Backbone:
């Protein structure tokens, strides 16, 4: 397995520093494609995932608690990481091609 500090660009897991506000561009550009080029086991910090998905640290923590977000790795009591492939799999599972089909329940009544 890769060295964690190398795999995530030496980002601090679970640090108490404030997350980058989402209305300001991140200081380091990161994409899921770039992370996957490092291999499927490349570890992403919560800050990396915030930059990639555009959600807050609180949302990521809530998803971990509810089990609704990407699978994560618990590195220590206060540190978590996300495998790049798990994030990609989670996004693929949430892909929607259409919101309504004629045979779905709750379809609009014909006029």
Residues:
């Amino acid at each position: 397995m890769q060295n964690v500090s190398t795999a995530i660009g030496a980002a601090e897991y679970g640090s108490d520093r404030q997350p980058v506000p989402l209305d300001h561009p991140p200081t380091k550009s990161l994409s899921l494609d770039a992370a996957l080029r490092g291999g499927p086991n490349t570890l992403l910090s919560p800050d990396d995932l915030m930059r990639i998905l555009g959600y807050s640290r609180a949302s990521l923590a809530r998803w971990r608690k509810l089990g609704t977000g990407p699978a994560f790795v618990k590195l220590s009591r206060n540190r978590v990481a996300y495998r790049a492939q798990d994030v990609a799999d989670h996004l693929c599972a949430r892909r929607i091609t259409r919101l309504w089909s004629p045979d779905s329940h709750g379809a609009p009544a014909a006029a």
Q: What stands out?
A: The beta strands are 43-44, 73-76, 79-83. Residues 44-94 form one domain. The two ends are 60 Å apart (CA to CA).
